[in-house]
Design goal:
Number of helices: 13
Order of helices and strands: EEEEEEEEHHEHHEHEHEHEEHEEEHHHHH
Distance between the termini: 49 Å
Number of strands: 17
Structural class: alpha/beta
Helix content: 25-40%
Largest sheet: 6 strands, mixed
Strand order of the largest sheet: 1-14-13-17-15-16
CATH topology of one domain: Rossmann fold
CATH architecture of one domain: 3-Layer(aba) Sandwich
CATH superfamily of one domain: NADH-ubiquinone oxidoreductase 51kDa subunit
Shape: globular
Strand content: 15-25%
Radius of gyration: 21 Å
Length: about 450
């Protein structure tokens, strides 16, 4: 039987050897911590503390601003210095809670459970919601909403996304290797919510040790199966993963639940385990600090709110001045010009590259080679869509399915003319959505 995959995709240099062999290192922050109130899709959280308040590890410092929202918890103990706008990785200012770390790590009491079977489905959902868990693969969708579909009886597959197809990132790899029991435990929690569902742990075949370990640990589990995937970007994209493992298709007007699926990445599933079984809220995550400029590339388990400068210092600093700094992976991350930025629940990586290959490659005219079409996992014609976008032709853009773009970057990577196809299409998609919102 061949490896599971999808049509299209690319094979960029993966850069994973820089950090994959080193175990996760816990990092305790030194200075102030910054907690943006918008760390998720949906309504921002509302502060429940004020300047001068003393907070403990695990204490709620901002409550959910609605159903599609998530609370935020302090990851250190200390004093609230203020609530003020701070710069985020997207280049925007967002209101944030600032906490001065007292380095005492005084912690609230967590409520652990003896057995998963003792909890009702409603209690599980409430624990996930109270823990402030959101999708930690990048999107930041509140997890309690994802686990509360309109028709739970129609959910047939729970997909644990261990593909980690984005180049350079190895945090999920290390988590699967070092803490596989937490991954499996989190999957069992989700399966407790859906009586008809089967759990798939989906791992690319460039991680044979993870596949072997997960397969061994799930022997005899009738509802859990390991699914080896072909190594190809963007194998871990939600739509690609669903198609590869179930053969079902999801478009821009659907949710995975409409296809009978729920998808969560590795760290999210681990957070679900900790929240439900230990009563521990989401305050930590694993971040890859890597790139050819970093002296000691590796993965760190950090407290949310930690300044990125501290991560670089802990990785030994830089060997040379980087031409490009990216928060996230090189395909879908955000380029930043400085490091005075806070890590959040969705921070996956910090990447330092000695060469800015994009800026160094001048754009030329399209040669109609079709490479962008071959690589597109959404079966689109990116060159044409980008032209419509550049000419602000919204009608033609929508007609040619521009809204189905998943912004993976395959087209820009494949283009020999170095056209910024993905950027143009993303901008047009945002414009279309804004115009639809105005009309509504």
């Amino acid at each position: 039987m061949g490896l599971l995959t999808f049509k299209g995709g690319i094979h960029p240099y993966d850069g994973k050897d820089l950090s994959k062999e080193k175990p996760i290192k816990k990092l305790l922050p030194k200075g102030e911590l910054v907690y943006p109130l918008s760390q998720h899709i949906g309504a921002p959280a509302n502060p429940v503390v004020q300047k001068g308040d003393h907070v403990k590890v695990g204490q709620v410092i901002a409550e959910a601003g609605g159903f599609v929202s998530a609370p935020i918890h302090a990851s250190v103990s200390g004093t609230v210095k203020g609530i003020e706008p701070r710069l985020t990785v997207t280049g925007t200012m967002a209101k944030a809670i600032i906490v001065e770390n007292d380095n005492q790590y005084e912690t609230v009491e967590y409520e652990a459970v003896d057995s998963l079977e003792s909890l009702s489905k409603e209690e599980i959902i409430k624990k996930v919601q109270a823990a402030g868990i959101v999708g930690m693969g990048g999107a930041g969708f509140p997890t309690h909403v994802k686990l509360s579909p309109r028709e739970p009886d129609k959910i047939e597959y729970i997909l644990v996304n261990g593909a980690e197809c984005e180049p350079y990132l190895t945090s999920d790899y290390r988590r699967m290797l070092e803490n596989p029991e937490w991954v499996i435990g989190g999957l069992k929690v989700i399966l407790q919510l859906f009586d008809r569902a089967k759990g798939y742990i989906c791992i690319e075949d460039n991680k044979p040790d993870c596949i072997a370990k997960m397969t061994e640990l799930t022997k005899g589990e009738s509802r859990i199966e390991v699914k080896p995937l072909k190594t190809k970007y963007p194998q871990g994209a939600e739509r690609c993963l669903i198609h590869a493992t179930t053969g079902r298709d999801v478009n821009s007007s659907m949710l995975p639940a409409d296809a009978g699926c729920i998808v969560d990445n590795i760290d999210t599933v681990v957070a679900i385990h900790h929240a439900v079984m230990w009563g521990q809220p989401l305050m930590h995550r694993v971040v890859t600090v890597t790139g050819d400029c970093v002296k000691d590339p590796r993965n760190f388990e950090i407290c949310t709110g930690t300044n990125y400068e501290e991560l670089v210092e802990e990785a030994g600093g830089l060997k040379m001045e980087p031409e490009k700094i990216i928060v996230g992976g090189p395909m879908m991350g955000n380029a930043v010009y400085g490091l005075k930025l806070p890590s959040t629940k969705t921070s996956s990586a910090l990447l330092f590259l000695s060469k800015d290959e994009v800026s160094a490659s001048p754009e030329t005219a399209c040669i109609n080679c079709g490479k962008c079409v071959t690589g597109c996992p959404a079966n689109l014609i990116p060159s044409r869509l980008a032209t419509y976008a550049e000419n602000h032709n919204e009608e033609a853009f929508v007609k040619w399915e521009g809204m189905e773009c998943v912004a993976c970057g395959c087209c820009s990577f494949s283009c020999p003319a170095k056209r910024p196809l993905t950027q143009a299409i993303k901008s047009m998609r945002a414009m279309v959505l804004a115009n639809r919102k105005k009309k509504a």
